[in-house]
Amino acid sequence: MTVEAFAPAKINLTLHVTGQRADGYHLLDSLVIFVDAGDRLRLSPADDLTLRVTGPRAEGVPCDGRNLVLKAAMLFGCERGAAITLDKHLPAAAGIGGGSSDAAAALRGLAELWNLPLPDPAAVLSLGADVPVCLRPRALRMQGVGETITEGPRLPERMGLLLVNPGVEVSTPAVFKALTCKTNAPMPHPPGWSSAAVMAHWLAEQRNDLETPARRQAPVIREVLDVIAATEGCLLSRMSGSGATCFGIYDSRDEAEDAARLIAAGAPQWWVQAASPYSAA
Ligand SMILES: C[C@@](CO)(OP(=O)(O)O)[C@H](O)COP(=O)(O)OP(=O)(O)OC[C@H]1O[C@@H](n2ccc(N)nc2=O)[C@H](O)[C@@H]1O
Ligand SMILES: Nc1ncnc2c1ncn2[C@@H]1O[C@H](COP(=O)(O)OP(=O)(O)O)[C@@H](O)[C@H]1O
Questions:
Q1: Domains of the chain
Q2: Which of 3, 59, 60, 174 is most deeply buried (CB count within 10 A of its CB)?
Q3: What positions does the domain GHMP kinase N-terminal occupy (predicted)?
């Protein structure tokens, strides 16, 4: 039996940094959604645990014990085997949780393959602050350092999303370290929205507190935000996570596709992807 697991890209629609723990980790308040673009895992029974990384974004991704997929597998104990193929489509170190979503997909896939329960929440969190939110991808509010997950709002039935990464890797620890204020206001309760325009209007009042320090590390982020904002029908452009990927919100997928074509033609070296929200069953 071969198990397939989808690892969707994560978008932090908002990312408020509200405090810092004694161990240095930051307290977050973030509205997280997932999209129908992502990495794909295939997991087959085998005597040994092996990982092969393939796909258009495989270059530079470790295929040894540093890969979060293998770290996830180790949480089940070291005595089990599986042949795992990770088909990489998402850019790494990009603020869209590629590695974290891969780890969560590996946990789901291996639990099914090995007929085992998922590891306990503390073990899942030890893989990375973003892994718990990726376990059952849908609209979620993420708080604490990433361990407190509550149901998110109802998303508009119709909307389009655009993801753009300029090919500059941004270091998450360095961005957090460069934050000047660590005690910012939390996010108000996200109410749920009937249209993409109403949602964009609400989001425009919120923040990504990591944008300013990320832009210092990668000034091209400003250009990416402006290029997205200038496309026809763009309701809002923002940065996701610690960057450098930025997203745009549109009324429809068609508008997002048109914007993607335009941006890709003008900046062929950038990663550009139109998408729709993704929700796990
Ligand atoms: C910033 C966020 C927002 O969703 O997304 P990305 O930019 O990674 O996509 C996440 O919190 C990232 O989660 P993740 O990438 O899993 O973080 P980890 O591996 O646990 O931590 C990487 C480093 O980021 C910093 N870190 C991370 C999470 C957090 N709540 N506070 C922190 O200070 C720490 O310096 C830590 O050493
Ligand atoms: N499966 C994986 N995919 C991508 N990067 C991985 C993976 N496993 C480990 N890494 C390492 O994690 C780092 C952060 O990658 P990623 O999780 O994609 O960042 P971000 O959460 O900022 O989007 C990369 O530089 C890479 O070396």
A1: 3-148 (3.30.230.10), 153-278 (3.30.70.890)
A2: 3
A3: 67-128
